[in-house]
């Protein structure tokens, strides 16, 4: 090989290596998530201590802590068939497709084409060329183009899309947790209404007997007609209050039906008389762990990472833009195409460097920096909100538990007072006004105790949601896992392989039957009855 040719080859190789070396130049700032200084422990204290070290983390199926088989079955149905959750999963799949689209810009784009044309001129046309009036053209060609990513603008776009897909995976996890918590909270509310209705029914039966007693007293001229009117007012107002609770129960049942992909008209949950849930033990861990447990915090962090990549893309716009193109083929007035004389080709490169654009690119860079700082502020706000929700949950569970225990004692005292005042009234010692006051106080205390117990279970559920429901940031798909297809994959395009725990049915038409009934699993309180009111009037 001559020295001249060797120098040309070395120069060409050096140019190629330099180009590929430049393509590794990343203009995005080094990304490091914020490091917050957080307290070493929570200020609020939960009412229940963790039993064993194995209980220091929440299970992903946390609703089983309530020990209600019917709730377990409905949660499984929600996870499989809820339309809002299915839509969130599809958004993640769409984000994965965008990753492939962005990555395709890193690879050469190839195309081919062919064409054939037959033209005939009119033989009577004025000034017609004295030759063939028909002409046939055939050609086929290939095209290739590639844009060297000298300044990593394309690579940063790919990385941003991967982080966007991770964000959507975190959004799916948060949507799933929120829907699961909403279902559990609605179900607890439903059972709270059941317990209230049972208490109202029991009290109504008691008031009907009390009304009969006052009527007997009136007949024997042992009581005034005013006592009968008071007893009637107490009975009828309680019946009206029960109807209000029944309406609220029906509305709550409708909400549960929608969450489980069922029409409210065909969905009915059999009532119970008491709330039979287990009181869950909710391990709170330490505040620093919360940033790894909350899907919405992880989503905000991934959004911040994307904004950091956008700065690199904005910076790359200040540098030269280069693209390479090549094309070739054959063309002839006939079918003898495979002939070197009929070949054609073109190749070249384009180079573009901005000189003056009135501050356009500087404004875009300034916008990118500001957008990044905004995401940092949003992330910090999300972290603070998550801390507040946990502290609120710990405070609620602690105070509501104490209040519930106090109200249980108050219920025992008011029940005893109600029966004693009625006994005194029958004996002619007490007044019916005292009996009415005791009845109102007893009913109000019993209903209030059930309302507080309902709020306590709902506070437990809210605390579990605030703690992330057993989720961990390690469950997010990796950057590489966000790719849904490979460059040469041509099959299995309808539904990519699930990653990151985001899996849904490939056939949404399977869930279009909305007339399904409620699950048949027993509730936690099935077979349990409300304790009777000791009625002295029967003895």
Automatic annotation (TrEMBL):
InterPro entries in the cross-refs: MdtP/NodT-like, OMP_efflux
Span of the signal peptide: 1-24
Subcellular compartments: Cell membrane
Coiled coil: none
SUPFAM superfamilies: Outer membrane efflux proteins (OEP)
Domain of life from the UniProt record: Bacteria
Alphabetized UniProt keyword annotations: Lipoprotein, Membrane, Palmitate, Signal, Transmembrane, Transmembrane beta strand
Family designation: Belongs to the outer membrane factor (OMF) (TC 1.B.17) family.
Protein name: Efflux transporter outer membrane subunit
């Amino acid at each position: 090989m001559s020295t001249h040719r060797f120098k040309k080859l070395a120069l060409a190789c050096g140019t190629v290596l330099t180009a590929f070396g430049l393509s590794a130049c990343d203009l995005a700032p080094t990304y490091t998530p914020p490091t917050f200084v957080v307290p070493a422990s929570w200020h609020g204290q939960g009412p229940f201590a963790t039993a064993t070290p194995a209980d220091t983390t929440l299970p992903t199926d946390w609703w089983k802590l309530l020990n209600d088989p019917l709730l377990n079955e409905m949660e499984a149905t929600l996870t499989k068939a809820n339309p809002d959750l299915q839509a969130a999963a599809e958004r993640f799949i769409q984000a994965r497709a965008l990753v492939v689209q962005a990555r395709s810009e890193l690879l050469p784009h190839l195309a081919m084409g062919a064409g054939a044309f037959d033209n005939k001129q009119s033989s009577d046309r004025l000034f017609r060329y004295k030759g063939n009036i028909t002409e046939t053209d055939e050609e086929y060609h290939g095209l290739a183009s590639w844009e060297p990513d000298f300044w990593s603008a394309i690579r940063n776009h790919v990385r941003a899309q991967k982080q966007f897909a991770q964000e959507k995976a975190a959004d799916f996890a948060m949507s799933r947790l929120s829907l699961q918590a909403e279902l559990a909270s609605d179900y607890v509310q439903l059972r709270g209404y059941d317990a209230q209705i049972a208490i109202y029914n029991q009290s109504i039966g008691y008031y009907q007997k009390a009304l009969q007693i006052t009527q007997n007293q009136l007949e024997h001229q042992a009581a005034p007609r005013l006592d009968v009117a008071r007893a009637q007012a107490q009975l009828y107002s309680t019946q009206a209050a029960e109807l209000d609770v029944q309406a609220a129960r029906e509305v709550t049942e409708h909400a549960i039906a929608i969450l489980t992909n069922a029409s409210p008209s065909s969905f009915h949950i059999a009532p119970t008389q008491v709330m039979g849930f287990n009181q869950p033990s909710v391990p709170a861990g330490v505040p620093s762990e919360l940033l790894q447990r909350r899907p919405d915090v992880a989503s905000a962090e991934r959004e911040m990472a994307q904004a950091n990549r956008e700065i690199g893309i904005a910076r790359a716009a200040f540098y030269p833009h280069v693209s390479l193109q090549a094309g070739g083929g054959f063309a002839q007035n006939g079918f003898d195409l495979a002939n070197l004389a009929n070949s054609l080709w073109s190749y070249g490169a384009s180079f573009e460097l901005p000189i003056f654009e009135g501050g356009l690119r500087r404004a875009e860079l300034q916008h990118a920096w500001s957008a990044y700082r905004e995401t940092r502020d949003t992330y910090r706000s999300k972290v603070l909100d998550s801390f507040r929700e946990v502290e609120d949950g710990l405070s609620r569970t602690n105070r509501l538990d104490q209040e519930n225990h106090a109200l249980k004692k108050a219920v025992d005292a008011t029940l005893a007072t109600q029966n004693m005042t009625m006994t005194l009234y029958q004996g002619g010692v007490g007044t019916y006004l005292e009996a009415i006051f005791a009845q109102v106080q007893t009913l109000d205390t019993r209903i209030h105790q059930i309302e507080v117990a309902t709020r306590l279970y709902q506070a437990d559920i809210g605390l579990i949601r605030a703690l992330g429901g057993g989720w961990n940031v390690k469950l997010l798909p990796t950057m590489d896992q966000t790719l849904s297809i490979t460059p040469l994959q041509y099959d299995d395009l309808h539904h990519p392989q699930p990653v990151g725990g985001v899996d849904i049915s490939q056939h949404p038409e399977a869930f279009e039957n909305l007339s399904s009934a409620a699950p048949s699993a027993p509730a936690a309180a099935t077979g349990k009855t409300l304790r009777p009111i000791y009625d002295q009037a029967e003895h």
